[in-house]
Write a structure and sequence with these properties.
It is a single chain. The protein is 51% helix and 35% strand. The relative contact order is 0.22. The longest helix has 40 residues. It has 3 helices and 4 strands. A 4-stranded antiparallel β-sheet has the order 2-3-1-4, with helices on both faces. The chain has a single domain, classed as Alpha-Beta Plaits (2-Layer Sandwich), CATH 3.30.70.60.
Length: 136
């Protein structure tokens, strides 16, 4: 199986739920085609380098996965026909140096995902303690 990275940008006019649905739709295409999703990096809303379809911002998401070459055809076909995706780019990793970089990017994306999940849990007790100390 070959390692791939696909970055896509979703329109900024979508709600959080609609954006999440678009990301889930792309992940479903990978699952249907038999690709193994290794990591996801939701980069969030960012400024575009230049206006695309009159949008200056977009919601960036990077998917790291392993699969056969036929996966790319179906994935990019779905990205092209999706009106809510304004840009996308797929990178193929084949050489040893590239694969080492792929592994680093996957580890970093997984680390970011874990800290994002842990952060709200850690903040809640601190907020409660701060609220209790101001009430007293």
């Amino acid at each position: 199986m070959t390692c791939y990275e696909t970055l896509f940008v979703v329109k900024p006019t979508l709600t959080d739920e609609e954006t999440a649905a678009q990301i889930a739709k792309i992940k479903d295409v990978l699952a249907q085609e038999g690709a193994e999703l290794v990591a996801t990096n939701d980069m969030g809303m960012r400024k575009l380098a230049y206006a695309v379809e009159k949008h200056n911002r977009g919601y960036y998401t990077v998917l790291f996965y392993k699969g056969e070459g036929t996966v790319i055809n179906e994935l990019e076909r779905n990205l092209k026909i999706n009106e809510d995706v304004i840009k996308f780019l797929t990178v193929k990793y084949t050489k040893n140096k590239e694969l080492a970089q792929f592994d680093k990017l996957v580890a970093q994306a997984n680390k970011n995902a874990e800290t994002a999940k842990a952060a709200p849990v850690e903040e809640a007790p601190a907020e409660t303690a701060a609220a209790e100390s101001t009430e007293a």
